[in-house]
Design brief:
Layout: E1 2-5, H1 13-33, H2 39-42, E2 47-53, E3 59-66, E4 69-76, E5 83-84, E6 96-101, E7 107-112, E8 135-140, E9 148-152, E10 155-158, E11 164-168, E12 172-176, E13 196-202, E14 208-214, E15 219-225, E16 230-233, E17 240-246, E18 252-258, E19 276-281, E20 287-292, H3 300-304, E21 309-311, E22 317-321, E23 328-332, E24 345-346, E25 354-359, E26 365-369, E27 378-382, E28 390-391, E29 398-405, E30 410-416, E31 423-428, E32 435-438, E33 455-460, E34 466-472, E35 482-488, H4 504-518, E36 522-527, H5 536-539, H6 552-564, E37 568-578, H7 580-591, E38 598-602, H8 608-611, H9 628-633, E39 647-652, H10 660-672, E40 677-682, H11 692-710
Parallel strand pairs: 1-40, 35-36, 35-37, 37-38, 38-39, 39-40
Antiparallel strand pairs: 2-3, 3-4, 4-5, 6-7, 7-8, 8-9, 10-11, 11-12, 13-14, 14-15, 15-16, 17-18, 18-19, 19-20, 21-22, 22-23, 23-24, 25-26, 26-27, 27-28, 29-30, 30-31, 31-32, 33-34, 34-36
């Protein structure tokens, strides 16, 4: 057994940094000696994310993560020259999020830091003995001043009238902007009523604030009159009401309504449910239903979309639904009668899914989806009349998160392909040449010309289910039979695209798969059933996870395909992945050590009975007591007596998505059986590996592990 355990505090940072630097230097020297690239080269480019735009000025803003140092940037149309707004220089794992630009584009508000755990401790991956906080800050978008802290909080939005910010923390509060005079109604404790209250949207005239109030087994939508300090509840009933939005004239509020939470109910992310759209008169609170979906149209669509319901300026209700078996967006008249005559108009179409979208000021609906090529992402537009969707970007690229730039004819979005990593890009709203504005150039060490373009394919499992995969093949300089790897993503409601991923976790793993291929491995990246991108039936596959682990059949189909390749040694096939991918890795090693020679299991689910107790994301399957026996049989620990292949188990102990206890239990079971287990424990690190240094450590440990266990006898 081999244990790799490292952790630092700020007091010991100099020595730890020297050790990390030496490790990086040695690894880099080894790569240079064999003429290969290094993982640090592949992760050298700044990673831009969280693109946002002002509603009233042609200003963009985003976060850049450059080797773990996260900073804010802005740009203004039409020149789009990037401007750096902050000067953080440490790889400290402190997130920047909840970006909001003021309507006039002058201010950028944001949240720095991650939220607390159940004990009240904020994420602190450097083990700083002074701890960390999560707080709202603002900075001038033109770079003319230093950032200023406003208050503790986890989200923020600008008030439309007056120099004020609405901050969501333990409650809902209002704070003045630096140097500004807040309205008279602005109070640090704006809403003190019962329930978990969250600010949603201001009325167009700024006099009212719609908010949601979650009461546990039910939820209300309220409207706060800011001057009068009164609340009127909108159609309160025995339901869960959420996502309130104002009509363009401010006289009505629309919201989503779903069934209440009964005593024995638990959230199940695999479920599909009906939802309703209601509108209420602000003056009276009287509400009426304008739409009811089919019984299986809702659930995932309502929690996956950032804004699942909006009221457009041309008086349409825009919402997400899976009513045709695919995640699409629809428009509906707010004056529909709620019965059979309430027929929504499709804004996106096809056997494909929409992931992110925006409404332009001219009523145009712009979205990112996979409607032109299912294993990539493209941007489309549909005019206000719902005309046929127009493809704006290339089919085989990764274009996501479109935003309409105010006051001009521009769209901004994030753009990548198989070789070029993610960048902020702009293009004319009607389509045309794409200009990548940040980063304007890649670092000298980034191996652009040496990256491979993954090949897309499909696999058929023994039960007939078709899954999808991307295959990274080694350079032609590698001959003979090679070791191979299966990479399984987490989620499971994710899709791994055939290029640099738009989610940071999978961006890093895409770099690692390129690195593994450059070292001679054939890497198959599996989009197994349960994932997104291929329709509701695929995502809601029968007997998945704790109810039978049916997706493991897709893993076996991937192994069989690799084993038949002439250039693969069937005795040297490994597997790795994180979270749900860790569950599938552990399943493969426990069920079929005869087929899988080694594996790296990152923060995986190992016993679904533990998940059923709740407390983390692995408890979101809504398991009931009579399902626990099946849940155990679906778990890797149920098959542990057959585990013979070596495994590296990786886990950060501040994991809020999958309990650290899952790996504690598995490691002890394996050690008791004297199974070949190695460990990498990262104290105070999060599920998503917030530090650049952590990613280097995890990827290099993974490469070292597979070299030792799969490269013996290599050509």
């Amino acid at each position: 057994m081999k244990a790799i355990q490292r952790g630092t505090t700020r007091l010991g940072r100099i020595g730890a940094a020297a050790g990390i630097a030496m490790g990086i230097a040695l690894a880099g020297a080894a790569q240079a000696a064999d003429g290969g690239m290094d993982i640090a080269d592949l992760l050298s480019a700044p990673q831009p994310e969280q693109l946002t735009a002002s509603r009233g000025a042609p200003v963009l803003a985003w976060v850049s993560n450059e080797r773990g140092a996260r900073n804010l940037w802005s740009a203004r149309a039409p020149e789009f020259v990037p401007r750096k707004l902050t000067a953080f220089d440490e790889d400290d794992g402190q997130l920047l999020g909840s970006l909001q630009l003021s309507r006039d584009g002058r201010w950028l508000a944001y949240v720095r830091g991650s939220g607390p755990d159940a004990a009240g401790n904020n994420s602190n991956p450097t083990s700083d003995p002074d701890g960390e906080e999560q707080a709202v800050w603002v900075v001038a978008s033109d770079g003319s001043g230093k950032p200023q802290r406003i208050a503790p909080g986890r989200s923020v939005q600008f008030a439309p009238n007056g120099d004020a910010l609405i901050v969501q923390g333990r409650g809902v509060g209002c704070f003045a902007l630096p140097g500004g005079k807040a309205p008279d109604w602005c109070k640090e404790a704006l809403i003190k009523s019962r329930g978990a209250n969250s600010a949603a949207e201001f009325s167009p005239d700024g006099r009212l604030l719609a908010f949601g109030s979650n009461r546990g087994d039910h939820a209300f939508v309220g409207v706060l009159d800011l001057a009068a300090r009164t609340v009127r509840w909108m159609g309160a009933d025995f339901y869960n009401d959420a996502n309130p939005v104002f009509s363009p004239d401010g006289r009505r509020v629309a919201f989503l309504r779903t069934a209440p939470t009964r005593a024995d109910d638990a959230f199940d992310l695999t479920a599909a449910n009906a939802f309703e759209i209601w509108t209420a008169d602000v003056a009276t609170g009287l509400a009426k239903r304008v739409f009811r979906s089919s019984d299986k149209a809702g659930g995932y669509a309502q929690f996956s979309a950032g804004t699942p319901l909006s009221w457009s300026g041309d008086n349409r209700l825009i919402f997400a639904s899976e009513q045709n078996g695919w995640l699409h967006w629809y428009a509906l008249s707010p004056d529909a009668d709620g019965g059979k005559n309430a027929e929504p108009v499709a804004l996106s179409r096809g056997e494909c899914e929409v992931e992110t979208s925006t409404l332009a000021d001219n009523g145009e609906f712009v979205f990112s989806g996979n409607c032109a090529e299912i294993d990539h992402r493209q941007i489309f537009s549909v005019d206000a009349k719902g005309a046929a969707q127009k493809l704006l970007t290339a089919k085989n690229e990764i274009a996501t998160e479109p935003v309409a730039v105010a006051g001009g004819q521009w769209l901004a979005f994030r753009h990548a392909d198989a070789r070029r990593p993610t960048a902020i890009a702009v293009m004319p709203r009607a389509g045309g040449e794409i200009k990548r504005i940040f980063p304007a150039r890649l670092p000298a060490q980034f191996p652009l010309d040496r990256l491979v373009e993954p090949k897309t394919m499909t696999l058929r499992a023994s039960d007939g289910v078709i899954s999808h995969a991307n295959v990274f093949e080694p350079p032609k300089s590698f001959t003979g039979k090679r070791p191979a790897l299966i990479y399984v993503h987490g989620g499971p409601i994710r899709q791994v695209v055939a290029g640099w991923h738009y989610i940071g976790y999978y961006y890093s793993d895409y770099a690692n798969n390129q690195w593994l291929a450059s070292q001679g491995y054939v890497v198959l990246v599996l989009n197994y059933r349960d994932g997104i991108g291929y329709g509701q039936a695929f995502r809601r596959a029968d007997k998945q996870g704790p109810r039978g682990a049916s997706e493991y059949q897709d893993v076996l189909a991937a192994q069989a395909w690799l084993a038949k390749r002439e250039d693969v040694d069937a005795k040297r096939i490994g597997i790795y992945g994180g979270s749900y991918g860790g569950f599938l890795t552990a399943s493969a090693l426990s069920r079929n050590s005869d087929l899988f020679a080694a594996g790296v299991d990152r923060h995986g689910v190992h016993d679904w009975r533990v998940s059923a107790q709740g407390g983390d994301n692995s408890g979101l399957w809504g398991l009931k007591p009579d399902e626990l026996e099946t849940a155990f049989k679906s778990s890797p620990v149920a098959h542990i007596d057959g585990w013979r292949s070596p495994v590296l188990i990786v886990h950060g102990d501040d994991d809020r998505a999958v309990k650290f206890a899952q790996s504690v239990d598995l490691v002890e079971r394996l050690r008791a059986r004297k199974a070949p287990v190695e460990t990498l424990v990262i104290p105070d690190e999060d599920h998503f590996f917030l530090r650049y240094a952590t990613w280097l450590q995890v990827h290099r440990s993974t490469m070292d592990f597979f070299r030792r266990h799969l490269q013996s006898g290599a050509d």
